[in-house]
Amino acid sequence: MSSIYSIDDFANRKGDFQKMSAYSKLAFFFFVLISIVFTESLSVLLIVLSSVYLLAFAGSFPVSRIFKWALYPTFFALIFAISQGDIHFGLIILLRAFSAASLALFFSFSTPYYKTFGIFSKLSPFLASMLFLTYRYFFIFISGVERKVEMVEIRGGKNKKLRSIGRVVGFFIISFLNKSEEMYKILKVRGFKGKVGTAPDFKFKLADLLILTVAILIFIISLTYV
């Protein structure tokens, strides 16, 4: 099963996290993301990572897959981290990237994409369209990288895997904008009007309060280490 369909499959299951309101999960996402961006404490970032993966484990999500996919955006952060020449700051950059990617993947696995972009479309149809296209192509990007790396290994490039991954990722970055534009044109031809609709999702339950409490606690902890 490809990356995008795997996530859609999990997001549309009937688990406890999937039944939560998309609004509460979106609030959780933003509270924790703000904590990740503004904290300069390795301890806070480790708390965030632990919380995200404990929630993923509790929700029976594929923790190993989330971990693996979160490493892809972290690869870009590694280049910037090395250029800083400061080990502590470099670690913060890497943990921020890895934590943010893990958080985004956890959110994607627990929330059907049409509910998320439906919320954004109420605020800005244009913003919702851009996020929708980015979301879809991100996982196409991951699948493409995985296939290319496998091809390199089959052709004897296993001993130079890191260099091979760098070249493959570079190739896909160059094609990213072109592919996104092509996808948008295809959707327009098929009748896409730039807006993703969704049904009301305001039913808050005890589970929603619990996940919001976790988010607020993380946010408060991060404020003490800004």
Question: Can you characterise this structure?
Answer:
With 226 residues, the protein is mostly helical. The protein has one domain (3-223). The protein contains ten helices and no strands. The termini are far apart. The model has no long low-confidence stretch (mean pLDDT 76).
Order of helices and strands: HHHHHHHHHH
Strand content: under 5%
Q: How far apart are the termini? A: 41 Å
Task: Find the count of extended strands (DSSP E, 2+ residues).
Answer: 0
Any idea how many domains? Answer: 1
Average residue pLDDT: 76
Overall form: globular
Structural class estimated from helices and strands: mainly alpha
Largest sheet: none
**Uncertain residue ranges:** none
Helix proportion: over 70%
The total count of helices amounts to 10
C-alpha-based Rg, rounded = 19 Å
Write the layout of secondary structure elements.
Layout lengths: L2 H9 L4 H4 L2 H17 L3 H17 L4 H22 L2 H24 L2 H11 L1 H30 L6 H29 L16 H18 L3
Helix pairs in contact: 3-6, 3-10, 4-6, 4-10, 5-6, 7-8, 8-9
List its salient traits:
mainly alpha; globular
Sum this structure up briefly.
This protein has 226 residues and is mainly alpha-helical. It has helices at 3-11, 16-19, 22-38, 42-58, 63-84, 87-110, 113-123, 125-154, 161-189, 206-223.
